[in-house]
Amino acid sequence: MGFSGHAQDSKPETSLIANPVYQKNCARCHGKTAAGHFMAGPSLVSEKTTAMSPDELRAIITNGKHRMPKFEGKLQPAEIDALVDEIRSQSKRQ
Hints:
Order of helices and strands: HHHHHH
Helix content: 40-55%
Shape: globular
Distance between the termini: 27 Å
CATH architecture: Orthogonal Bundle
CATH superfamily: Cytochrome c-like domain
CATH class: Mainly Alpha
Radius of gyration: 14 Å
Number of domains: 1
Number of helices: 6
Strand content: under 5%
CATH topology: Cytochrome Bc1 Complex, Chain D, domain 2
């Protein structure tokens, strides 16, 4: 607190794979490193995924898509928002 600098540089970011919500609910299909599993969940660190809008990602997590189950009612909206932010932040780390 009281740290000054560029807002983007000073904002603390939680790593997607360090998030306990990710490890409990997502890692089984998307992998412990979020790189995906063949014939299961796709990579969450791919350029295609990290380029999705926050609304697209939120809709997929909330409502499910293809074989992915919906997490509405299983995760709190704030947990879904954190996952969305963490997925999108992966593109900045590559």
